[in-house]
Amino acid sequence: MSGRSTRSALSLASFAALALASAAGLAQTRTAPEVPRVRLVATGGTISARGGGGSRLSAEEILQLAPGVGRYAQAEAEQFANVASTALTLDQWIRLAGRLNELFDRDAGLAGAVVTCGTDSLEELAYFLHLTVRSSRPVVVVGAMRSAGTPGYEGGANLLDGFRVAAQPESRGRGVLVVFNDEIHSAREVTKTDALRLQTFQSGSYGLMGVVDPDRVVFFRDPLKRHTVTSEFDLTGVSALPRVDILLFYQGAPDDLVRAAVDNGARGLVIAMAGADVTGGSLAPGIGYAIRKGIPVAAATRTGSGRIAPASASRLGEGLVAAEDLVPLKARVLLMLALTKTRSASEIQRMFTEY
Ligand code: ASP
C-alpha cells in the first residue's frame, strides 16, 4: 500500500470511527428526549470543506463529526447554504436572519440554534445576527480553521461546543455568541486575528465571555450594549441593505477614493482613521464631499481597539458620526442597519452609542 493510500485508509478509518461514535450520540439523542432541542443551520465554510478542494460536507454530515452531541441536545440540522463565508451575499444575510427569526417564532420548543460559517467573515455575520435576531434564545456561530479530513480537524469539537452552549439555559439573553477553541465570545467584540492559527478568534481587551470546559459551560460576563430582543432593527420588509463602504486612512491616501465610493452609490461610509483623530488627514476633502452630499460618515479607528468619542466627531460638523469602540467591520454592519431606519446623523450617533 502506498503512503498516500495508507493515509487515506487511515483517515477513512478515523471518519468511520467518528461516524460510529456520532451514531451512538445521535441514538442517545433519540433516547434522551429531556435534553433541549437545538437546530444546526449550516452555511458552509472550512468546517464543511472536505479538503483538497471541491465538494463540501452537508449539514447532516458535519453533525456526524460531532460525536456525543446527543448527551447535550436533540440535534437537528438544515442546510441554508454551503459556500465560503466570503461568498455569502448580503441578501443571504437578510434571509438567514429571517430564517432564524422564523424558527424561533414558529417553534416554541426550540432551545437554540447553531450556525456554521466560514471563519473569514464570520465576525461580520455574527454581529449582523446579534442585531437582527429578535429572540433571547441562543444563537451560536461556529466554524473551523482546518478542513474535515485533515489531521487535527477541530470542526467537530467546535460544533459540539456550539451545541453545548446553545442548549444551556444560561446562554439565553446574551446575544449572538461565537464559540471557538473551547472559548465563548460576544459577536460584538470578537474578531479574527490570525489567518491560520486555531486560536484566531479573540475579543481583545474585552476578553472572553465564557468557556466550554469538560464539566460545564461557564459565563464570566454579559454584553451591556443593545442586541437581539432589545435591538430596534427589524428586517421585516427590508429586502436589501444599503451600500456602505469602508475606506482606510494610510499616509497619503487619496481622497478621490472617498469621492468614488459616493459617486458609485455608497449610502454611508466608514473611515478607518489613523488613531483617535477624526480629521481623516488626506481623506478630509473626500469626507467633506460625502457629508455635503448627505452621506453619513462613521469615524472608526484602524488601531483594532479604542474608542472614538462623539464629541470629537461632532466638532467637525453634522454628518460625521463617531463609531465609538466598534472596529470598522462592525461599524459598517451597524451603519447598514441604521440606514434602513434613518439618514439623520444625530440619530445614527445615538445608535452607535447604544449598540
Ligand atoms: N475561506 C473559508 C471561509 O471563510 C475560511 C474558513 O472557513 O475558515 O469560508
Which key features would you list for this structure?
globular; eight-stranded mixed sheet; four-stranded parallel sheet; single chain; alpha/beta; binds aspartic acid; Rossmann fold
Fold and architecture overview:
This protein is α/β, with parallel strands linked by helices. The protein has 10 helices and 14 strands. The protein has helices at residues 3-31, 59-64, 90-106, 122-132, 155-167, 256-263, 284-292, 310-314, 328-339, 345-354, and strands at residues 37-44, 74-83, 110-116, 139-142, 177-180, 183-186, 191-192, 201-202, 210-212, 217-219, 244-248, 268-273, 297-301, 320-322. Strand 3, helix 4 (122-132) and strand 4 (139-142) form a beta-alpha-beta unit. The longest helix is centred in the N-terminal third of the chain and has 29 residues, at 3-31. The termini are far apart. Aspartic acid (ASP) is lined by residues 45-46, 84-86, 118-120, 143, 145. Aspartic acid binds next to loops.
Beta-sheet strand percentage? 15-25%
Shape: globular
Termini, distance in Å? 59 Å
H-E order = HEHEHEHEHEEEEEEEHEHEHEHH
Q: Give me the CATH superfamily of the largest domain.
A: L-asparaginase, N-terminal domain
| Share of helix, binned | 25-40%
How would you sum up the major sheet? 8 strands, mixed
Total beta strands: 14
Number of separate structural domains: 2
